[in-house]
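Lab notes, practical 5.
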Amino acid sequence: MANLYRSWLKNWWYIALTALLFYVAGRLTFPLAWSQSYAGAVWPPAGIGLGAVLLWGHAALPGIYLADLLLHYEMFHLSDAPGKQLIFFLSPLSNVLRSWLGCVLVKRYAGFPNPLVSTRSTLLFFLFAGPVATFVSTVFSVIGLFLMGIITESDILFTFVTWWSGDCSGIAIFTPLFFIAFNKSHRIWRQRLFSLGVPLTAIFMAVAMGYLYAQSKELGRLHKLIGNQTESVKEALLDEFTVHLSALTRLKEVVALNTFNETYFRFNAQTSLKQHPDLVQIEWLKAIKVNQGYRFVRQFSETKTNNYSVDFDSIPELLSTLDTAQNSVTLLGKQHYMIAVPSLETGPDSCECMKGMVVGIFDINAFLYDAMHRGDYKHIVVKLTDNVSKPKFESIFGMNDDNAILDILGLAKLETIRFGNQHWFLQITPKNNFLTENYSWSPWQLLVGGMFLTGFMSIGLLVLTGHTELVATQVDKRTLELKRSNLKLAGREQQFRKLVQTQSAIVWRADPVTFRFVFVSAEAVSILGYPVKRWLDEPDFWQKHIHADDKETVLNACAQGSISSKNHSHDLEYRMIAADGHIVWLRDIATLVVEAGVITELYGFMMDITKQKHSEEQLRLAANTFETQQGIMITDKDAKILRVNKAFTQITGFSAPLVIGENPRFLKSGRHDQAFFQDYWNQLLTNDKFEGEIWNRRKSGEIYPEWQTVTAVRNELGEISHFVSVFSDITEKKDAENKIHSMAFYDPLTNLPNRRLLLDRFDQEMAIAKRHKQYGAVLYLDLDHFKILNDSQGHLVGDELLIQVAERLSSVLREEDTPARLGGDEFVVLLHANSETLSAAADQAMVVAEKIREKINTPFILNQYQHQIGTSIGITLFPENQENPDAVLQQADTAMYRSKSSGRNTINFFQPSMQEAADLRLSLENDLRGAIAQGRFILCYHPQMDVDGNMVGAEALIRWEDKIKGRLSPADFIPVAEESNLILSIGKWVLMEACSQIKMWQDAGLVNLPYVSINVSSRQFRQQDFISQVRYAIETTGIAPSSLGIELTESVMIVDIEDTVDKMKALKALGVSIAVDDFGTGYSSLVYLKQLPLDVLKIDRGFVRDILSDSSDAVIVETIISMAKH
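Output from the prediction step:
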């Protein structure tokens, strides 16, 4: 009894679970179904139903019926006709038939139950469960849909194909998923969770989401199309109503005439009846004043034909209940509606009184037809109601409203429409053919194609995973067979191991193809130190531990032996790396077992021959060592030479017969004192070794360095029996070290210490000065006008000058002082800190500085010409306020710049105010960068007049508009701009700004200004693209080139005269005028002027200022003017 109860409970559980899964899957699939018949490209319940029947038997069939019946109820309307109700309840049996038939077929022809691992069983399963079993059920399902009126005859084929393919796809996709979830009969279904279940579910969801997205886009388009149809119908109805109202209004105007009578009324009424097919009757009702309003009496009435015999006698009473002050629209039954238009007249008290009502009665069907016959409204159902849920009347065009689609897609459109004082509702619903003609099948094609491919992917993955399972089964079977064979061999192998483990050599056996060891004796641990497990477990263990120098040879020999298989025994000697890192020599004798030309076994043994190899190596080294390139000298314990090699003779010059039996002291150079040799013998006798640098003497008398290693050799008693000296000539190495040292610490041009060596010595001097409380000084020198000389005469002349300056510096300094060159024309002199007070150090520094200045002021002979230069010197003392060498050098540099600004060729001591000036200059440079970025510059234009007072041009002068300092002249910032290279950016701005201003003046009509000149710095003029800058400014602004002038300083001419001439000619070719400013202050030769294409020569004001009082100035000016004219 208990078993029967458990069986009954189990069956009910299967029924409930099947029904739940079937219903949920079907309900979730509704959005993927076709709107008319709910036939879908995929029907998951088909796969779930089949899986449930296959696993749980016939107990699952009632669950399938109940779930499918519920789905039918939700999908289709239950008809009131008994025949259709019977079909409704019988239709779910087709799904029951599909699952039952599929179960029977796959059990009979596909061998189910089986895990679907073979390709044949898998394909048969889906053939009979899919296309075969679902064909019959699909036929019954489509017939049921047709009999229930859900689909038409034209839809049968489409519905059949869709329903059939959807069932097949559902079985192909969801039956495997159902088995993964509920089939516990075989391990493969659990393994297929990730290899089949996850990707299959992901692909299904991706296809479904893609279809839903595409479907939403398509529905949006259809909604818009229905909306347009609705608006068009609404406008047609309103236009027709307006026409009706106008006709009645005209009749009202006729009634208002004094000559109105029955004849007038009937004539106008008959005219309107003929013009409007939907107008069936027109009446004139006279208004009679009563206490609460008006009472209406029909006075005249005109009907279209005698066919309209509808009784409208209640109209007067109806009018009495309406608002007679305005036009009103009222329904009359289900086929007619009335429009009442009031007619007013002026009463005795000058008031607007009701005269009567003009009433028109219209046929609704004719009204709708007349309004819509002009438009193309196909495949839609029109409903016009005064209540949304209870339509009062309606009109249909094209086909009966029974053919309207079930509005599952929500395409019906409802709009409010106003007729006079009435608000009615207009509803437009598409018919079946609307979707046929307007629906884009792309989303449906996407769904069908996607599900088709997903189904095939499911079958393919089942085949693939099944094949994998078959392979795994075969492997397990073979493994079991091998295990049994190995057990038989285990006993024999154990005996063999006991035998070989007693051997002193490494006995091994290996795979003849991969050379992987399958057996290694325990002696391998004693010889090489690696555990036997590593030999066996690591595939390339032997290959990895062969010495790198022997690996290629050994492996090639093994490969050749395997290929030829003629020589069945191979004897190899090679090295291997032991576990502790030392090298072990092995003799490996390998034997190959060949059967039918194929190597079937490979075994052998390895013997340790390390000691033998070492003995051979020592013999070889003993024979060759003496002929090394290093010198070798062997003496006895009393230091008498016993033997020397050829390299000894080559290095020292002494031959073997001359030195044999002598003491090596004849090689002494005399550069080492007694203390050196005491240390030498102390190391040799204590440590049995000396190694170091020794200076010896060759036979030629030349002293040379050598690196010597002397080793004491002791006998068995521990007594020294011999000394072996090995040495090499390191002359070239020492020369290279000295050269590197010189390059690192000395200036290659002047051979003076460079900055690195200077700072090193400065650190030492600073330490000495602080320790002894003494003071020294630093002199910072910069040669005046060196750049002009270097650029005009060439770098060779400039370099020669620097060499001579270095020689003169060294000649006036003490040995303990340090002259250094920092670079360019800058020199530093470090005076030794030996003064007791700061004042004494200052006096000493001043004396040295005066000597240096006097020495440098002496003319130099360079390239057979005499040149004279000066030097600006800055002095600072140490240790004072600063103890950092770099800071002290900076102070001296600041003092040197003070000397330059004081007129050059002067000497200045550093003062704190100088540092403040340097800080101000740095601040000015930063402000200048900000001014460039913010555009804080302006140009002021200074007129240029001739002797008659006429303006012949203008000069653009830059000014800096600073927010704090106000307007600054070029003298305040141009020097800093030159030094910081900011002059290039400023120069470009001046060029573009001046050209822009010239263009503005030219556009404004200012034509009496011949040109505007700008000042160009030497740095800007020397730029390679300077001509391109000028050309760009002229072309960009569009000015005439002759309206621009370029002013250069005289110093530009004497630097690279060829480049100067080329650029000036290029400027002239552009049409730009050229002027030389402050002529007479530089070092230029008048010969240069003949080569330069100048337009203007501006004489320096120093000559012009005293021209009336100084005859020399007058003569110079007159000469320059005359030269310029000619």
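Observations recorded by the TA: The longest strand covers residues 583-595. The first helix runs from residue 2 to 29.
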